[in-house]
Design goal:
- The protein is built from twelve helices and two strands.
- With 372 residues, the chain is mostly helical.
- The protein has one domain.
- Strands 1-2 form a two-stranded antiparallel ribbon.
- α3 runs antiparallel to α4.
- The chain starts with 10 loop residues before the first helix and ends in a 12-residue tail after the last helix.
Length: 372
């Protein structure tokens, strides 16, 4: 039987999440003060927005923990969430361009990034679909629907354009299909299809090609496509062991673009040094450990896949961001989850954590509780 206790969720996971959100609030304020003063005439503008997003997200976590039934695996909820995500992704393309992209829906002064919601929608959809059709999952007619949903979602995200998130969605879906029971041979066809799709979009824009070339020939054009990563590495390197001190970063003074969003880890490394950077990375690894334990202890395959999908998406996105900041991969324009500025990302990430904590409250079929 499945049973709950009011304070019987994964405490280490919750604390790791809370620490990452707190670190994010502090570094967002430190890295965005000058930009906020110039663009909004209020140094605390981005700080207030980040705190509001964190408060709303944590309230959502509390609500999810108070719900007994796994409503998120109800097909009506899942298809409704997928429909809303698809509609908002299409609506993005009709919105005014922001920073040469169409990634946001802007209504009544509020901006929302639907690709963040699409991550959670796909996780729930694939978990439910794989579980309900596990006996026929390796038949192509059964795989047609989830693959169609995935291709349409990835295509809409690529049209924004958001190449990094599209790759993350494809990787997450493949992991969930594998956990769900799809045989490796079927991934050959799927992999070939995505190689073609991503290649077409990769070479359709010169700036993407420039980023790839800049990564493999960093010294040839330091002021060109690799400039941002080069400044990021300078920031991390100048932090030393313990950093230059909170608020003392020089790279945030317009030397490093996107200092409070995609490259916030560089400012964190500069101001808190190797110690702060390692602690932050350790928190993500703790998140990974607890998420995997929750997935392994989940009471049924659907919950296992939801837990695994959420854990993989958040940790993989974090590692993708950090590799870019450290110059270990081409620039992708993907935020650091739970830390980078962005209400959409923070709200959806915390909602995903809420579902993960909800799963951790369940008892396994044999009556043993999820171990802490």
């Amino acid at each position: 039987m499945r049973a709950y206790r009011r304070i019987n969720f994964d405490i280490p996971l919750f604390l790791a999440t809370l620490l990452l959100v707190t670190i994010g609030i502090v570094i967002v304020f430190s890295s965005s003060g000058y930009v906020a003063e110039e663009t909004h005439h209020q140094m605390t503008y981005y700080l207030v927005q980040q705190i509001a997003g964190a408060a709303a997200g944590l309230a959502l976590v509390i609500i999810l923990l108070s719900v007994r039934k796994a409503f998120y695996l109800n097909p009506v909820f899942i298809y409704g969430l997928m429909a809303v995500s698809a509609f908002l992704l299409m609506l993005c393309l009709a919105m005014p361009t922001i920073a040469r992209t169409n990634r946001w829906v802007v209504l009544l002064g509020f901006r929302f990034q639907p690709s963040e919601l699409a991550k959670l929608s796909l996780i729930l959809f694939f978990a439910w679909y794989c579980e309900t059709r596990k006996d026929r999952l390796n038949e192509w007619k059964t795989l047609a629907l989830p693959l169609s949903v995935l291709v349409v979602t990835v295509f809409l995200v690529l049209m924004e354009p958001d190449f990094g998130t599209a790759i993350l969605l494809a990787m997450m879906a493949c992991l969930m299909l594998y956990i769900g029971g799809v045989k490796l041979k079927n991934f050959l066809v799927l992999g070939a299809a995505f190689v073609v799709l991503f290649s077409l979009f990769l070479f359709s824009a010169s700036y993407r090609v420039d980023r790839i070339q800049g990564f493999f020939s960093q010294s040839k054009d330091p002021l060109g496509s690799y400039y941002q990563v080069d400044q990021s590495k300078i920031a991390v390197g100048s932090g030393g062991l313990v950093g230059v001190g909170l608020g003392q970063s020089t790279q945030k003074l317009y030397f490093l673009p996107s200092a409070h969003t995609d490259f916030i880890y560089a400012i964190l490394g500069e101001e808190t040094g190797l110690v702060g950077a390692v602690i932050t990375l350790a928190l993500y690894l703790l998140f990974l450990w607890r998420g995997v334990r929750i997935a392994l202890a989940a009471p049924d395959p659907a919950h296992k896949m939801v837990a695994a999908g959420i854990t993989f998406t958040i940790v993989a996105q974090a590692l993708m961001n950090i590799t870019v900041v450290l110059g270990l991969g081409p620039t992708k324009g993907i935020p650091l989850p739970l830390i980078s500025y962005g209400r959409s990302s923070l709200l959806c990430s915390l909602a995903a954590v809420g579902l993960l904590l909800h799963i951790s409250r369940k008892k396994v079929g044999n009556g043993a509780k999820v171990r802490m």
